[in-house]
Design goal:
The chain has 267 residues and is α/β, with parallel strands linked by helices. The chain has 9 helices and 14 strands. The protein has a 7-stranded mixed β-sheet. A 7-stranded mixed β-sheet has the order 7-8-9-10-11-12-13. Helix 8 packs across helix 9. The longest helix has 15 residues. It is globular and about 50 Å long.
Length: 267
């Protein structure tokens, strides 16, 4: 069967994704309460007790809100790089030493059938990362919280079968929005978040004939709309590629519900 995954929640109020292959089940981030994560997993007919580990992208609250509670309740190891661990310590409560696993940025770790690679991204956190998941020829990439798309990140995302990519905000909605200017400036900076336009431009560079689907993720509830994100990204793709060129299907993510299971071996 290979890799399948569900984005349990995506957005500024909480982020959590479950990825599995064979008998291996991993969470990426735990930015919701432990109770809510259990509920969302149950909706996908997955018991939290069947999880093997939690991978952390960075220490911001929308990615770690339930991290300590989930890890303790289900006796799960947590994987993060050293700088992220240093930033996590005061926020997630006591974690047993044997559950603290250091996965350095750039490292490839085997979890049963799954090979997981982390790679550095630009964001205002201690040492933020994104992840690639491999099973044989299958490749899933999950990359959110990107201030900008560097050449190194582009290389890491190339030839993914399925890509989960941030499309955080519409620039004009953000500029006209209620946030203070210092917050807007941070979001728009190279250490902030990827706009719809930037996501569209990035997709034109990283999708290939192999890429089947792209999930637009981590949308701002204040400064974006899913329909607007898809329209903006699609317009940029339409303007870039020839009519007969391969196009990856754009799919939604949600802050309040999970996406259906997506199997990478399905067209």
């Amino acid at each position: 069967m290979g890799i399948r995954f569900s984005i349990l929640s995506s957005g500024s109020t909480g982020n959590c994704t479950v990825v599995e292959s064979g008998e291996t089940k991993l969470l990426i981030d735990a930015g919701l309460s432990a109770k809510r994560i259990e509920q969302l997993l149950a909706e996908r007919e997955t018991a939290a007790t069947s999880l093997d580990a939690i991978l952390v992208t960075h220490e911001h609250a929308d990615h770690i809100k339930g991290l300590g509670a989930v890890a303790r309740k289900f006796d799960l190891p947590i994987y993060a790089n050293e700088k992220t661990w240093e930033a996590l310590n005061e926020h997630i409560g006591e974690i047993a030493d044997d559950k603290r696993r250091v996965m350095q940025t750039g490292e490839m770790v085997d979890f049963g059938e799954l090979k997981v690679e982390s790679f550095g991204i630009s964001h205002d956190a201690a040492e933020p990362v994104a992840y690639n998941f491999y099973d044989g020829e299958q490749k899933l990439s999950v990359a959110t919280d990107l201030g900008y798309m560097s050449e190194k990140v582009r290389e890491k995302l190339l030839d993914s079968d399925v890509l989960v990519l941030e499309s955080n905000h519409d620039v004009e909605m953000l500029r006209m929005g209620r946030y203070p200017w210092n917050i807007k400036r941070r979001i728009l900076s190279d250490l902030g978040h990827l706009s719809n336009e930037a996501a569209g431009e990035a997709l034109c560079e990283v999708t290939s004939g192999k890429t089947k689907r792209v999930y637009l993720a981590h949308l701002s509830r204040d400064h974006n709309l899913m329909d607007l994100a898809k329209l903006t990204v699609n317009n940029i793709v339409e303007d870039t590629f020839a009519p007969d060129d391969h196009r990856a299907e754009l799919r939604d993510t949600y802050y309040d519900r999970s996406t259906p299971w997506d199997r990478l071996d399905e067209e």
